[in-house]
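Friendly challenge for the regulars: who can give me the structure tokens for this chain first? No prize, just bragging rights.
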Amino acid sequence: MPANRSLFRRGLAVAAVLPLLALGACGYGSQAKDDASDVVPVGEKTDGLDTVRIGYFGNLTHATPLVAHRKGFFQQELGGTEASYHVFGAGPSAIEALNSGSVDVAWIGPSPAINGFTRSEGKNLRIIGGSASGGVKLVVDPKRIGSLADVKGKRIATPQLGNTQDVAFLHWISEQGWTADAQSGKGDVSVVRSDNRVTPGAFASGSIDGAWVPEPTASKLVAEGGEVLLDESSLWPDQKFVITNIVVSQTFLAEHPEAVEAVLRASVKTNAWIDAHPADAKQAANAQLEEDSGKALPAEILDPAWESIQVTDDPLAATLETQAAHAVDAGLLESPLLDGIYDLRPLNAVLKQAGKPAVDDAGLGAG
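First reply, four minutes later:
Bragging rights claimed.
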């Protein structure tokens, strides 16, 4: 495959943001947490590893790793191998860390997963599981936008050129019969690329009229007086679409299969615990957000944001393929070859052990 066959174009390729935090050892013993204070590395090392380095974002769409970290579920499954954590601010930086070996397993969104896979011509990473669906909304200033038709001519923010929400919004614009240049954002709707950390301020100041954003940013905008005009889940079959995947480097997957299965067991265990204990899980996720960033979410933001996100073991592979097609239509992706992007054999082995049904790779699996 030619080197430029499946690359996101220039804007996406340079959109990496440095990690917000790079946490080393998670502090078991030296800095005990209320939930996981009794969970320490004990027993045999998994695959002979001293440490497994786990990456995720400080977003509620990464509820699984937030809760698994807080409750010690990763550490329980890894035994004598220490779980360490790295918190990232954007998908490209997480992919770079994965490719460089700075992290071993990472939770990331669909667009950076596709980008990381295609840029390496299918040689660097595999998606090994799902994590979350939903949690993306179009929130607008009701004084300026009263209907979907009113979005035309307005300034709408997305988090980043070519990111998952940017692709979704550009596709939605095209479905309305409107146009917008993917690179510049200019057209019938002005697409403003704005970091989620600054979007609420831009909304409050009136410099944007709305935003197509993930949680908890969407609920932050509502707290600023915005209204939800559209929930992206309403646009998908069964109201489900992938927002977060579990990704691993192919080298780590091949060399440390027991460690990969241990992380997947923790993920499946965590998702089951979240479903069974939603209120406790919400508080655990928020407590971990506070530890990672220094600031917890207030109830008026946390509660509606949490309600709109579904954790899932299923990677919802068919929706990732559709998202890739949307990126092609928008002019951000060229002829993606996604064959082999998934390896769900370890996950399906874990699911079988747990008495759960297997999940499907939509024909895009390795092997």
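Confidence is low (pLDDT under 50) at residues 1-33. The CA atoms of residues 77 and 157 lie 40 Å apart. Your move, everyone else.
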